[in-house]
Amino acid sequence: MTETEIVKKDLEEIYIGNLNTVDADLKLPLKGRNGSSFQWESKEILFISHDGKVTRPTFGVGNRKVTLQVEAKYLGSRASRVFEATVLEEPRKVRVKEIKKVIVHAEPGKRAELPPVVIVLEENGDAVTLPVMWDAYEPKKEEGILCVCGAAEDTEKKALAEIHYEKKKSMENKVRDKEVLVSFPAGSVTLKPGSMFYEAQEKMAEFLKKTDDDQMLYNFRAAAGLDTKGAQPMTGWDAPECNLKGHTTGHYLSALALSYSASGDEVLKKKMDYMVSGLFHCQKALEEKGWHKGFLSAYGEEQFDLLEEYTTYPTIWAPYYTLDKIMSGLYDCCTLGENHQALELLQRMGDWVYERLSVLTKEQRDRMWSMYIAGEFGGMIGILVKLYEKAGKERYYRAAEYFRNEKLFYPMAENVDTLKDMHANQHIPQIIGALEMYKAKGEKRYLDIARNFWDMVTKGHVYTIGGTGETEMFHMAGHLTDYLTDKSAESCASYNMLRLTSGLFRMKPAGSRMDYYENTLCNHVLSSMSHAYDGGTTYFMPLRPGGQKEFSTEENTCCHGTGLESRFRYMEDIYMDSQESVYINLYIPSVLKTDKIHIEQTEETCGVIRFTVRIYGDKEAAFRVPGWTDGFEIRIGEEIYREAAADGYIHIRRNWNQETTVIVREIYTMREIVSPDNRKFRSLAYGPYILAEVSEEEAFRPLPDLQKMRRTENGKCLEFTEGQRRFVPLAEIDHEKYHVYFMK
Predict the structure, then answer these.
(1) For position 170, what pLDDT does the model report?
(2) Nearest-angstrom CA–CA distance, 703 and 288
C-alpha cells in the first residue's frame, strides 16, 4: 500500500464504541493497524477531553453532542476523520414520595419470591423502580398474611411487602388463552413485483448474494484458531477489537434462511449451509482450545466471566445479546432453511447457557440483567423457549427462566409505566420472551406483562411513524414532541415491536393491533432501507425539521444487522390462518398458495385491491378494516359488505371452493394526525402512508392547506404538491432532507 492508502485504511478501521449513548470514558487509539499514528482533538473538552475522558452533563442540562477529530500521520502523508458523540446526561436523582406496597402469594411453609425492585412514585408523579434488600423472615406455616420490610436504594423510606399465604388453588378450571392464529408454512406467501415492499426485498436478496461468507466467519475462525481463508476482517461493531463482534453474523444467518424460505433460491441455501458448517467447525475448535463444551462466539468466554463480576459497559458489551443473535440465526436456519446441523449446534449452545447460569444465584442474575448495556441479553428468553419446544428438553425452559428481568417484569405485571430512562431495545425483546413463556406454559402473569407493556408503549411512547425511543432510550410518556431529533426512533426497536404485536395479535385478533403494525411497517421499517443495493439501514429515523437519513453499511450496527433480515418478514403477517378463518391483515400485493388456499391480491389503484380467492373447505375469509379509512367496502359480484365485527374485520362466510373475485375499496383521504402531547404539532397521512415534505429548511414548516393539496401528474398516486411544496411517503425518501412534523 502507498503512504496515502495506509493512512486512509487506518482511519477507516478506527472504532471507538457506540457513540450514540456515551456514558463512560472512551478508549481513543493512538496507532493504526498499518502503522499510522493518531492525534485526537475534542471540540468540547468540558464533556470529552482530548484523551477520551468523559464528564457527563448534570441532570436537567440534557445530552450533549461532541465532535471528535482525529488526524492520522504516516511518513509524509496525513489525513483526518470526524466522529460525533452524544454524551448522556447524568441520571436524575429520585425524589421519593411513596413506595408502592408489594403483594405476593405463597403456599404455607414456603418462601415467597419477592421482587428485587420496588415501584417508587416520585414527587413529580413519575414512577420508577429502585433496588431493594428485604429483611430476613420465616415463612408462615398456616394461612394468613406476613409483612416483610425492606430497604430501598437511595432513600430512607422503608419498603413493605405483604406475603399472602394460601393453600394452592385448583387449576383444573383455569381457562387459558391460546394462540388462535398461526402463520402459513414458509414459502407459501410471496410478494408480487411492483410494490416498495417487493423492491426492498429483492435489493436485499441481491446484497446477501454478494456478501463474503468468509468475512462473516472471520472473527469466529480467528477466536477458534482456524484459518480465516484470506478474508478481510469485519468492521465497526464487528471489528476484531470490538466487544460486540459476531452479532451481525447471527443476523446474516437469519437473513439467509428467511430469504431462502421466501424465494427458494438455491444460491442462498448454499451460502446458509456453508455458514452453518463453518460455525460447526468453530464450535469444535473452541472446545479443543479449552473453552466449555457447547460454547460458540466470536471471542472467548472472558466477557461472560466479567459480566458475572458486574463489569460495566464499555469494558464488556452485552455478551448474551451477541449469543442470542447467533442462536436465533441458527434456529432460523434449522426451521426455515431445513439445516439439521444448525439444530445440533443450537442445542449445544443451549446446554452451555444452562450449565453456566444454573450455578449462579437468583440475586446474581438479577443484578446482571439490570445493568445498562453490559447486561443486555436481547431475545435469549424467546430463543431458549423455542429451543425447549423444538427439542423437548426442560432444561432449556429453565434456562429461559434464568433471564427473567424483574426490574422490567415486576412493574409491567403491576401495570405501572416505569419505562422512562430505560433502554428501549434492551427491553422489548425481553417482553417478547415473556409472551413466549406464556405460550409454552400458560402462566398468566407473562401474558399480562406483554399486554401491559404493549399498551404503554403504543399509547404513550410512539411517534407518528410508529417508532419509539430517542438516543435508544424511552422518555417520559406523552412527551414525544420534546424529542424530535436526529436520533429519534431506533429501527431495531420498531422491528421488535412488530414481532411483539404479531405475537399478541395471534392470541386475540384485533384490528387496532394490526393498525399499529401496518403503520410501523409502512412508515418506519420500510422507510429505514437504503434505496441502493448496499444493505444499508437507518440506525435512527430523524424526525427533526430538515432531518436526513443516514444508512448504516460499514459500521455493522445493531440496526444494520436487523435490517438484513427484516426485509424478508414483510410477507409474514399479511395472511394468518385459524380453524375457522383465513385472515387478510395487510393490503400488500402478494400471493398465498397452499394445497387448500389460493389468494392473490393486486393493487389496481390507490385504495382499490383486486383479490382472487379460492378456499377449499368450510372456512370464512376475514378482511381487516383499517382504522384510518373514511370508507371501506367489499364487493363480490352484486354483494356489498361494509360492517366490521367487533374485532375490526369483515368476516365473509360463503362457498369459496370456486375461484371468486373480490374487490376491496379503501377510501384514501388526506388527513392530519395530531400529536397527542402537543396539538400544535401535526403530521400528514394519505391512506396508510405518512407523507414527508422534501425541504432543506431546518425550522418547522407550517401545516399545508389540505384543501390545496394536489396529486402530481407524473403517475405516482402517492405524490402531492401544495404550491411549490412537494410531499411523498417517508419510505420514498432516500438522501433528501425532509419534514414529518408540521406546526399548526
Answers:
(1) 42
(2) 65
